[in-house]
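Example 4.3 (complexes with small molecules)
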Amino acid sequence: MATRDLVILPDPRLRQTSDTVTAFDGKLRALVDDMFETMYAAPGIGLAAIQIGVPLRVVTMDLAKKDDPPAPQVFINPQVVWSSEEKGAYEEGCLSIPDYYEEVERPAAVKVKYLDIDGKEREIEADGLLATCLQHEIDHTNGVLFIDYLSKLKRDMVVRKFKKAAKQAGAAPHVPNPTHEL
Ligand code: GNR
Ligand code: NI
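Answer. The structure with nickel (II) ion bound is encoded below.
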């Protein structure tokens, strides 16, 4: 088991559509293990595989409150099959967009079909934080980020900030005007 590096905005992999999982084997279990380790270490309450660079439709989640026992959940190939007309608003964050939080409005309740780690078909009806988190993670499997629901002005501001940060992180150390020294 190992933690993996998180993929951060503006990495183009975050815009990839992930592939459907077809093999329910040890490799999938190892991926899920690494996703939980990475998610708990971050810490985050949900993670999509693309956030560690693996373009597969795999989602991990744990919504247990601090001091409650862990409640790990895995969703393979999740898809929303029903969503409520009623909307709910949550302040969302994303491990791929660190330290940025904004309120997002989404359907308040959803029904999600998915497969469990053994490939067995499951269905869950969710509201509250679980509904929000499921939609946020399913969006990741489709290359969609929560900033896509904000105004263009807000989204452009965030993307610019992260582009600048990535550029500075990758740039060579800057020595101002070395030839103009006395
Ligand atoms: O840790 C996370 N918290 C969170 C809070 C509100 C709505 C969604 C989330 S998911 C996020 C982890 C993450 O980026 N998952 O993709
Ligand atoms: Ni996210």
